Amino acid sequence: QVQLVESGGGLVQPGGSLRLSCAASGFTSGRNDMRWYRQAPGKERELVASITGTGGFTNYGDSVKGRFTIFRVNAKNTNTVYLQMNSLKPEDTAVYYCQGWGSWGQGTQVTVSS
Questions:
Q1: In sequence order, which residues have a C-beta less than 8 Å from that of residue 81 and are 6 or more positions away?
Q2: Could you give the angle at the alpha carbon of 80 between the alpha carbons of 11 and 103, nearest 5°?
Q3: What are the tens digits of pLDDT across the range 63-109?
Q4: For 18-27, what is the mean pLDDT?
Q5: Minimal CA–CA distance to 38: which of 87, 88, 99?
Q6: Contact (Cβ atoms closer than 8 angstroms) between residue 48 and residue 105
Q7: CA 49 to CA 7: how far, in whole Å?
Q8: Beta-strand runs (E) in 1-114
């Protein structure tokens, strides 16, 4: 079973930046598309960004376009996907999850507040 381990969340002021990472291991099928989702209290989980297995194509939710960047580093036994978040807003506050190979990470809390 593929394991996804996220890190990088925290508290940041509006306008600040954070970088999330998600390390995937235990896969046998090699590169796979990976995604970042987020879920704010009382709201449905929404897709933030996605990236193809080779990193050649990316896609973003409308609310984060131009502010967030997804990229990945593929190694033999570990794929790591990153989410660089700039110009953060209070409405970006949520638990962020990475997803791939049919598995989900445990989530990492991002709080944007002054």
A1: 21, 22, 24, 34, 36, 51, 70, 71, 72, 98, 100
A2: 90
A3: 999 999 999 999 888 899 999 999 999 999 999 999 999 999 999 99
A4: 94
A5: 99
A6: no
A7: 17
A8: 3-7, 10-12, 18-25, 34-39, 46-51, 58-60, 68-74, 78-85, 94-100, 103-104, 108-112
